[in-house]
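Sequence in, structure out. First:
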Amino acid sequence: SEIQGVPEDLLFFYKHLQKGGGVLRVNRCLLLYRYHPQAATHSVHEETIWNHRVKFLEDRVLSTWTSFTIWNAGKQGKKLYRSLSPANRKKVTAFCDVDEKKIAKGFYTFEESEERPKPKIPICHFREATPPFIICVKQDLTGGAFETNLSMLNLKEGRDYYHFN
């Protein structure tokens, strides 16, 4: 049987933040990781890390918001939506995107839901969307287009949006 690892560094970091610790950027190497085939890090499942990240987002950010928009109507945005607690799914007012095909669909139907009728979440262009946002777009992947779109909205990170990617 395969033993599942624990993302100790991530959990340590989250506990540090929860206790009021800060984060500073230092432009030099402070820690060197050595990877080898038997390294414990390989036993940590991606889904385990994802679930810890979602829980942290819910506890630290979404618990203080009454509603929000998920920026990305694609795979990552929908995965985040499906991973949220039922209470936090109800806070999602829309998905926003730049992809005309996704926007043309008009909404995302949460097919896995037990609710009847199944929840339908609108999909709109980012310019029509209402902050705050949880952004599920990988940075440096759009040749600067995403960063340009975000900066044109004059939002403040940590208040109007958080990155989750």
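Second:
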Amino acid sequence: AGMKFFLQYVGFFFALFSALFLIISTWTDCWMVNADDSLEVSTKCRGLWWECVTNVFDGIQTCDEYDSIYAEHSVKLVLTRAMMITADLLSGFGFLFLVLGLDCVKFLPNEPLIKLRICLVSGVMLLLAGLPGITGSVWYAVDVYVERSSLLFHNVFLGIQYKFGWSCWLGMAGSLGCFLSGSLLTCCTYLFRETSSGRFHSAYSSRKGYSSAATVVTNVHLPSSQTATSKMYAVDTRV
């Protein structure tokens, strides 16, 4: 039981931080950051939804949102948005299911098998969340790196060159956390399924045995007059 609680809590904390990392990554603006030298007087960051410029001296930040979601955008931007939003939803629902499946939560306390199945569903959802998350963040980072390398290779200088920023790293970390928490939860479910099943059947058997014993004791303590009356009623009924 102690190991089961430990694995559940470890999976809980990994799922919590992974979901937060994915959500923060999706809705922050530093997927790409300028890779110029220290002579620059401003830091330029580009995200999935807007682009921000921060003055390095006074810290004033100005942001420009991209065009409408229905406007024409690059394939990299559109697909990364879709994959990160999918990862956010799956990790969020996976975390909520995990909360319901924890043994310390008073939800279906007399149904250990159902709670284990809830943990299994949570683990599967977290594993599925890690797939679009890692695909979107790694693909975005590789595309930025390839674009920068091609410009350097062809000696093309456009004034601003970008490298992937902390939002992209946060997306990768959240995705890996989803893989880890999902693996822990699924393994925990399979490891402790037999134990919970055995306890459930033993508890059911004990309740059934107690019910049978109570019935026998009740019949034993029935007065003889009631027993005789019952027999006579049965004979009359047959007639």
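Remark: The helical segments are 2-26, 75-101, 112-153, 166-220, 224-238.
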